[in-house]
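Hi support team,

I've been running sequence recovery on a batch of backbones for a student project. Most finish fine, but this one hangs at about 90% for roughly twenty minutes before it completes. I'm not sure whether the input is malformed or the queue is just slow. I've pasted the structure tokens below so you can try to reproduce it. Let me know if you need the job ID as well.

Thanks,
M.K.
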């Protein structure tokens, strides 16, 4: 599991590296032909990790329902994200990696509700969920890289 955690951290660092130096206006900009923006993609990966790993394990998530609903699959930006919210997401992005590692080592992931993803794979365990989440975040890293070129 340590390797999966390392990949998760590296992917989030890469996403933020692509977004580094941009203004809030640029982070919130939705380019023509897209349904979302850089900051939404970042919030989405933070939220999705919680949904895939915690909600499917029947455990409480470490994010508010407001944030989960704002960035979950199917949501779209409804207005500009504030700098304070962006800073909170950046902090949570890395704090929640450490929480996942500690929770996994503590053995709290005892159950898992099987889930068929839109990627056409079915997740049946926390191990599969963590692994799939890394693929999902890599997909969004690619989206962030594409969006960045249009800013």
């Amino acid at each position: 599991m340590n390797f999966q955690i390392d990949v998760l951290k590296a992917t989030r660092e890469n996403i933020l590296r692509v977004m580094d130096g941009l203004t809030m206006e640029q982070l919130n900009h939705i380019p023509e032909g897209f349904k979302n923006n850089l900051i939404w993609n970042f919030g989405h990966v933070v939220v999705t990790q919680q949904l895939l790993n915690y909600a499917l394990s029947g455990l409480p998530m470490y994010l508010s329902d407001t944030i989960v609903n704002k960035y979950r699959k199917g949501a779209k930006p409804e207005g500009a994200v504030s700098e304070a919210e962006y800073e909170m997401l950046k902090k949570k992005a890395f704090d929640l990696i450490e929480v996942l590692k500690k929770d996994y080592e503590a053995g709290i992931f005892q159950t898992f509700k099987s889930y068929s993803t839109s990627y056409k794979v079915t997740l049946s365990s926390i191990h599969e969920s963590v692994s799939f989440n890394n693929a999902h975040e890599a997909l969004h890293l690619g989206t962030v890289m594409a969006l960045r070129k249009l800013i």
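--
Follow-up from support: It reproduced on our side and the slowdown came from queue contention, not your input. Residues 2-149 form a domain with the Four Helix Bundle (Hemerythrin (Met), subunit A) fold (CATH 1.20.120.450). No action needed from you.
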